[in-house]
Amino acid sequence: MSVIYLLISVSIFVAIGFFIAFIIAVKSGQYDDDYTPSVRMLFDDETKITPQDTKSPTEEKQV
Question: pLDDT by residue (tens digit) across 4-56?
Fold first, then answer.
């Protein structure tokens, strides 16, 4: 039974160690994405439909 207590305590310390390493990596900018914004302008944007574009050709002539 004492082995279970030992394993639980070791696993908690390991989990805390990984959590601290994750926090340090996030604060140091490890997960910042510097590449995507530089290539975003190379991709075409999707066309957006505005209310003015939804009129049919017959409606535009009547106005």
Answer: 999 999 999 999 999 999 999 999 988 888 788 778 778 776 666 666 655 55
Please report the pLDDT score of residue 36 as a whole number: 80
Q: Tokens at residue 19, please?
A: 């959590």
Q: What ranges do the domains of the chain cover?
A: 1-28
* Mean pLDDT rounded to a whole number for the chain: 82
Is the dihedral angle over the CA atoms 47, 48, 53, 56 positive or is it negative? positive
Q: What is the distance between the terminal CA atoms of the chain, rounded to a whole angstrom? A: 86
Q: Do 25 and 31 meet the contact criterion of CB atoms below 8 Å apart? A: yes
- Cβ contacts of residue 31 below 8 Å, gap of 6+? 25
